[in-house]
Each structure stands twice: as structure tokens, then as C-alpha cells.
Amino acid sequence: MKTIDFSKHVGMRIERAAQFLVDHAPARGLFNGVEIRARYATTHPRDIVNEYHWQWTLRDIRYANSAKGKAERREREQEIARRQARVDDLIANLPIFGDPLSVVLWIRALSEAMNMVGVVVPSAQIERLFNDHGYWQGRCEGDDYRHDDIHNTSCYLAGQFLAILNGDRPGGGMFLVLCDRWIERWSPKD
């Protein structure tokens, strides 16, 4: 039985690897750490693909039930709980809408806390609250944006934040960096 070195084929999909094995049967090889094989030229590639996915599923189950997998799950659950508590605290302590820096600090803190699968954010409630205070998605964009005006820029950042909440824009690191830049610019200097 030939051994195929799939490590030389970076980016190859399992379907193509399965066909490659069948074309060179009898053959076997490690594909992403899972041994796949075609004993006969009549082996159907779909059977190899199904076996590959089954082996990955078994590996995931074994890991999830291992001491390391259980510890990782507990850590993730604790991190979700910590972030959820932060989100709940921020919802209970809303920004001072008349203070643009307060709004951006609150948005930045909530953006960081909610940036994990499993953290629940009352998006509709937040959007209504911001809309009621004159902040909405798309406000102060394009020709309306004035980088030298703190209120205008806080409206812009709030609009970007609302777009993230609605799933219209990606959140994460770049948005946090943008908020940090403006927080640093506007924060009182000692």
C-alpha cells in the first residue's frame, strides 16, 4: 500500500484527497492528522470523506471528555459568565448621553465584553435607547463626519457600534482600537 504525503498539498480539500487516494489505490495517508485510505480502486471517494468526518467527530468527543477538554470548557464557561456580568453591569449603568466621552467609553467597554460567543446582549433595547438619545446607525458618516468635533465623532462611533450590534459590520479589534484612539485624544490630561 502506497503512503501519500498530504502535507505537501497545503490547502487541499478532503474531497480531492479522497479522489487522489482512489486514483492511486491501494493507498493511505495522513490528512490533517487523520489517517485516510483507499484499499481498492473501486473505493468510493465519498466513503473516505465520510470516514474522515467521522474520525474528526470522534476526536472532538474524546477531547471534550478528556480532563483537558473539560478544564477548557469550564474556563470558557467562566469567561462567558465574567463577560456576561460585565455586560449586565454596563446595561444597568448606562452612559451619560450628554457627555460624548462617556458614550464612547461605555460603547468601548460593552464592545469588549460582548466579543465572545455565548454572551447575550439586549441589542434591540440598546438600539432603542441610543435612538431615543439621538444616536443611530449611519449617523455622522460620509460628508457629515467631522473628526475635530467630539460630539460628531461620538455619534459616528455610536452608529458604527449599532451597526455591529445589528450584524451589519464586523466588531472586534479594529473597532476597539478606533475607540481607544478617540478616548486617548479626548481624555483629560493630567
Topology:
Blueprint lengths: L1 E4 L8 H10 L3 E5 L2 E5 L6 H21 L1 H26 L7 H14 L9 H10 L17 H16 L7 H14 L4
Describe the structure.
Helix 1 (14-23) crosses helix 2, helix 4 runs parallel beside helix 6 (150-165) and helix 6 (150-165) packs antiparallel against helix 7. The protein folds into 2 domains: 2-65, no CATH class; 74-186, no CATH class. Helix content is 58%, strand content 7%. It is mainly α and 190 residues long. The protein is built from 7 helices and 3 strands; from the N terminus they run βαββαααααα. Strand 2 and strand 3 (34-38) form a beta hairpin. The chain has helices at residues 14-23, 45-65, 67-92, 100-113, 123-132, 150-165, 173-186; strands at residues 2-5, 27-31, 34-38.
| Total count of helical runs of at least 4 residues | 7
Instruction: Kindly name the structural category.
Output: mainly alpha
Total number of domains: 2
**C-alpha geometry:** elongated
Q: What are the salient characteristics of this protein?
A:
three-stranded mixed sheet, 190 residues, 2 domains, mainly alpha, 3 strands
Give a summary of the structure in a few sentences:
The protein is mainly α and 190 residues long. 58% of the residues lie in helices and 7% in strands.
